[in-house]
Structures are given as C-alpha cells and as structure tokens.
Amino acid sequence: MQDVLDILASGIHDTKNQLFSAEALIAASEAQHEVDLSEIRYAIESAAERLSRTLVAYRLMRDGTQLAVVPTIVADLCAEVELAQKHHLEKAGLRLTIACQALDDWPLDRDLVSDMLNNAIQNAGRVARHEIRLSAIESDDVLILRVEDDGPGFSCLPPTDGTGLKVASRLAELHRRKDRCGKLMLGNDSLLGGARFELQLP
After folding, report:
1. Predicted confidence band at 59 (pLDDT cuts at 50, 70, 90)?
2. What whole-number distance in Å separates Cα of residue 195 and Cα of residue 5?
3. Contact status, residue 191 vs residue 133, Cβ threshold 8 Å
4. What is the per-residue pLDDT across 98-138, written as a single tens digit (0 to 9) for each?
5. pTM exceeds 0.90 for this model
6. 5 by DSSP, 3-state: which?
7. CA proximity to 78, closest of 145, 175, 172, 169
8. CA 141, 143, 149, 153 torsion: positive or negative?
9. 68-72 contacts: CB < 8 A, separation 24 or more?
C-alpha cells in the first residue's frame, strides 16, 4: 500500500510542476497579446500550491515528522490569507471580512494552517451568497480560527473521515501543546447564517 501511495505522491509532484509550467506560458501569452488572463492564472496557481501542500501533508502523515511550528503573529496570518483570496472573491461578487481579535503570536505551522484556511475559504466561496468571514480569537488558552459563510449551510454535516477533512483534522491534531492537541470542528451555526469551519489550536 505504501508503494502505491508513493507512486501517487510522485504523480502529484509531476502534475504540480506541469501546472507551474502552464502558468508561465499563460503569463507569456498575456504579455504578448495584451489580454487579462489573471483569473486563469489564479486558478492554476491555487491548484499548484494546493498540490504542494498536499505533498507536505502526506509526508508528515507518512513519516511522522514534526510540524514546522514557529511563533506566528495571528493578525499577519489572517492578512496573508485575505491577500490571497480577496481579489478572486471580489471577482465572484463576494465580500471577505476579517475579524482578528487574537493580538499575540501563536505557535503553529504557518504554511499548513494558511493552506487549510485558504482551502476553507475557497470551499465557502462555492456556496456563499454575499459574504465570507475569517475570524481569530483566543479562548481558554486555545486559538480559534473560523471560516464562516452566508450560504445554505451543510445539508448534513460531512464526516471528518472524508479525504480532505481527514487530512485537515489530522494536521490539526498534530498541533500539540502540553497535554492537548488541536482539532477541527464543523457546524451550521455560522454568525452569517451558513456553515462554520473551525480550527482549534492549543
């Protein structure tokens, strides 16, 4: 089974590189023909970056290696995610609001947590009507990162054993401090009336 997974990982790596090559060709065409293909480039870049993070997550889960946990200023993390998503969401007629009340830094794997938040926002963008909200608060020595939308909510809460959610849940659990570990929570109690994706990190 491990050999099969390694073959799949190799295929993901090759696909990622091909996507980056396609993005470079599109950028050259934009310059040559003076057309705006930014949304296509955004989609390709997002897919390639997602594949890169998937490979990192796979290696972490396969090898049992440690996360790259460093003190991270939460407000900067939220601003980074906003910068990555806002333009694309605005093109789709959606508003992204940020409510960061976590003022201190927090020990976490910045790249992986950023990827999980970006992915959650992209998923919310498929169903949101007008608005998506990213918030960060500290409560009982836990950092809570939420992505909420004003869509219809989950028709039924998806099980955390689905592939993407299983990976996100496992990566959350790998964030450990003292005797506690992180967790992923889902719900239909968004402040905007739709779905809620929540990461709790100790």
Report:
1. low
2. 32
3. yes
4. 999 998 899 999 988 998 898 899 889 888 999 999 999 99
5. no
6. helix
7. 145
8. negative
9. 68/109, 68/110, 68/111, 68/112, 69/107, 69/108, 69/109, 69/175, 70/107, 70/108, 70/109, 70/110, 71/105, 71/106, 71/107, 72/105, 72/106, 72/107, 72/108, 72/110, 72/113
Angle subtended by helix axes 163-173 and 110-125, to nearest 10: 150
Reported as a single tens digit per residue, the pLDDT across 5-18 is 566 667 676 676 67
Question: Are the C-beta atoms of 151 and 37 separated by less than 8 Å?
Answer: no
CA-wise closest residue to 201 among 50, 21, 74, 41:
74
C-alpha span between 181 and 110 (Å, rounded): 16
- With beta carbons less than 8 A apart as the criterion, state whether 75 and 137 touch: no
CB 168, CB 144: distance < 8 Å: no
